């Protein structure tokens, strides 16, 4: 004999009951999303940065302040941000596409793909220059200028970092190969021996991080400041 109040009857009642309203279902799905956004914002945008700042200030005060470089009591730059040096007596940095060059407020690259002809040939009105009146130098033009400045033969091999912009446009380093090709020019302009300039380059060359990560690199701004201490700098009007 079948019990009219048994499990079968319960199933029949469940099948006959109305389904949840679509709005209630959608609200139940949205609730976790709406709650997670402010929660994650507080955790990752407020709590985490404040926790890092609270630890960095006492443990790494110099890095927390921006790794600033001071000369004669005056801040002249940061170890983390490149600067534009163009005269012969200084080592020249990697090209930059950040604003008008090394603009920390406009950090960025050219956004040009490797197959884009503008990267190779340049353009007179490329928007990456941020100014239609300025020329955007391509890799070919940059390589020719690099060879001319450093007394290299036409067609001589040029280091990649001497003719390409970094993704940030603020790279404060150059490769040891790039620095080595600039040594004769800097030595002549400073009236120093090439051996002395190479010694300064070696002193400011940093190895791979932890001995494994990245590649050896030369810190341009500290190196140029060391040159100023070793020999009189070029005239201020020529910088």
How are the SSEs placed, and which strands pair?
Elements: H1 7-16, H2 22-59, H3 61-64, E1 68-71, E2 74-78, H4 117-121, H5 139-149, E3 173-174, H6 176-190, H7 194-203, E4 205-206, E5 217-219, H8 220-230
Antiparallel strand pairs: 1-2, 3-5, 4-5
Q: Can you give a write-up of this model?
A:
With 239 residues, the chain is mainly alpha-helical. The protein folds into 2 domains: 20-65; 68-238, no CATH class. The chain is 44% helix and 7% strand. It is built from 8 helices and 5 strands. A 3-stranded antiparallel sheet has the order 3-5-4. A two-stranded antiparallel ribbon has the order 1-2. A hairpin with a 2-residue loop joins strand 1 and strand 2. Helix 6 packs across helix 7. The longest helix is centred in the N-terminal third of the chain and has 38 residues, at 22-59. It is extended, with a radius of gyration of 30 Å. The relative contact order is 0.11. The model is unreliable at 129-133 (pLDDT under 50).
